[in-house]
Description:
Elements: E1 4-5, E2 8-9, H1 27-32, E3 47-48, E4 55-56, H2 59-103, H3 116-139, H4 144-164, H5 166-171, H6 174-182
Amino acid sequence: MSHDHAGHEMSNMDHGAMDHGSAAMDSGAHDHMGMGMAMYYHFSSMETILFKFWNTKSPIGIVISFIIVVLFCFLHEAIKWTRLSWRKKVADATAAANADQHNDESAPTHGRAISCPMVGDFVLHAAQLFLSYSLMMIFMTFNVWLCAAVVLGEASAHLFFRVMLPGLDRAAGWHSVASASCG
């Protein structure tokens, strides 16, 4: 009888090393001991978040992690709005330069070269991507408290920056959408 399953030889496993009666095999420990992950929404206070060292073992740990995740959301939105602000400034400067160029026909035209603002945007874009995927991974723990932290953190941070930076709100085109849908 062959023990070949999906190309893996089962006969090479040390069956004596497997303790099927151990306490680590119960359903609660199974989800948090690296042997599996809860693929359903749950309210557990025991969670490993992003890194092996960031784990919670009590409700206080979940509350502290909730606050940290909300702060991550504010940092994510701050980066997004900073990039939007820089793009608006570059667009305004480019429009002014184009207006000056039309007035002076002898001005040389240059191709697009890498500049300090482009490098800065590159770095901020990379940080934004890292935070975006990290927040997605936090949500994918399916822990209701952490999912709520991501949703409430992102929504409140977005609202905060829209209120604090209304000029960028219009530059991003959100003003026209809001006025069209809200009357």
